[in-house]
Amino acid sequence: GLSSVFSSLSSAGVFDKLVYIIPLTIVLMILSFVAYSLIAGVLASMTVNAEDFQQVQTPIMIICVISYYLSFMSSMFEGSLFIKIMSYVPLISCLLSPALLIVGQIGIFDVIISIVIMILFVLVLSKYGLRVYKVGILNYSTDGLWNKMFKAIKKE
User: Fold this and answer.
1) What's the rounded mean pLDDT across residues 21-46?
2) DSSP state, 76?
3) N or C: which end of the chain has fewer CB within 10 A?
4) What is the Cα–Cα distance from 129 to 36, expressed in whole angstroms?
């Protein structure tokens, strides 16, 4: 039963990989959590009613679902250039990069590139997101949600 699963995992070398996979995954997850939180907070600051809030949350949830399914199916499409490129995309890399690293389709260097891209994404999101948040948090106008956001980005 369970002992045969552990023996097959150890013979495949999975436990040796976990020493560096777990820390890289934790860093990527924390950065992704910060990015998702920033996006959700900034977009929520622009909403004035429940319909706008649902409009804002839907793209975030779609990105999460895409990330989940790509990581789930990554082992089926071994060597896929599309999936490898998607492992660098912020918000998707948090689930996809560790999965690809475990199955051996990418290396540590690729995950580090994903982490650097996530750091840059969080910094850019902070810079422009805070502008939108500052304008949007006290803005109760009924203009279109996306129009308010683009006006706030252009303002500074």
Assistant:
1) 88
2) T
3) N
4) 12
Q: What is the arithmetic mean of pLDDT over 45-54? A: 75
In this predicted structure, the answer to whether residue 129 has a pLDDT above a threshold of 90 is: no
Q: What angle do CA 122, 71, 44 make, to 5 degrees?
A: 40
From the list 60, 116, 66, the residue with the least C-alpha distance to 88 is 116
| Predicted local distance difference test score (pLDDT) of residue 103 | 82
pTM of the model: 0.75
Q: What is the C-alpha to C-alpha distance for residues 23 and 41, in angstroms, rounded to an integer?
A: 27
* 107-137 core/surface letters (b: 16 or more CB in 10 A; e: else): eeebbebbbeebeebbeebeebbebbbebbe
Q: Which of 102, 94, 100 is nearest to 79 (CA)?
A: 100
